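Re: duplicated header lines in exported structure tokens

Our pipeline writes sequence and tokens for each protein into one text file. With two proteins the header for the second block appears twice in some exports. Here is an export where it did not happen, for reference. First protein block:
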Amino acid sequence: RTARASARAGFTLLETVIALTVILAAVVGPVSLITRGLFSFSFSKNKVIAANLAQEGLEIIRLIRENNIACDSLNGPAVWEWNRDPDGVPIHRLRVGVDMQSRTAISCGNATIATPRLSISCSSPLLFEADPFLPNTGTYGYASGQATIFSRCVEMTSPPDRPDPDIPAADQMDVASTVTWDDHGNSRSMKLQ
């Protein structure tokens, strides 16, 4: 009896393998789910940042246009065209990187307006400069900061290739802001127009 009782008290090799398989299946599923969730979170976070950077690119071009219009009204009899870069050259086809940190001044009669520059290469990565007073905040630009995975390129065409027939072509401009980034070895992009 004692030999039989002790043989039944232990596990057989088959029971041990089945128990390990069940435990392993119970652990691998949640770990896989957590890994996939972290990857999705990282992709979603980068996509939101890229969308905001692309929107900012469009807003910078809008600011340059508004500054040009303000300069035209301040310039008196001289004409300052709305569709010129801050250096005074009319925009026909231009592909540049833009940021709010790089500025220049345009002379408008008796006034001077600070406006963003359009002279940055599209291939340069954006830099992130953390705000020392507000944790987890900061600005993206090209002047200073830590290199990021993002780069931004804004393409402007004036007059556009396919103008709206209801508006004179000389009064139109196509603007497309594209942000590209590397997502775990995959090249991603976000384009707003």
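Second protein block, exported in the same file:
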Amino acid sequence: MQLADTRAGYGWLSIALHWLVAGLTIYLFVNGEQFADLPRGPQAAALRALHTSWGMVATALILARLAWRWQQGTPAKADQSALLNLLATAVQWGLIASVVVACVTGVLNIWSGGQAINIFGAVALASPMARNGALHGLTEQAHSISSHLIIPLVLLHVLGALKHALIDRDNVLWRMLRPTRQA
């Protein structure tokens, strides 16, 4: 089983982290939109608790993914124009930045509300700060903006993958579906 990445593509660990983070990001967006539309009450509170818990799982996986990428390096770029490589890189970094900002502001939003982060009712991370209304409002807005920026970036990312699969007919999409051995 090939866990590590190669210059030609990704190993199973990168692939698993990519798809777990992608799935959780989609879930968290849908879940966040659901409780945002509900009046305060038990249903909204239950959805928010799930959002917080799964958001902390996503944060841990994102940190693991970033650490793994830093340690492994990046596989070779696709054989395409410099402009398309620049666009692909910008979209990938935009996605990373948006997801990281959503994670950080999610944590700060709860803590600036003077509350602990409760993870599945099993672990509570106490707030290191007192309630701060101004910071709470700022983090809430930043969390919403970064979360909504993820959607167009994911669409561009998927369109790029489809371009590689359907137009270029190269190995780029398949690198994120199965490990690529060293070329």
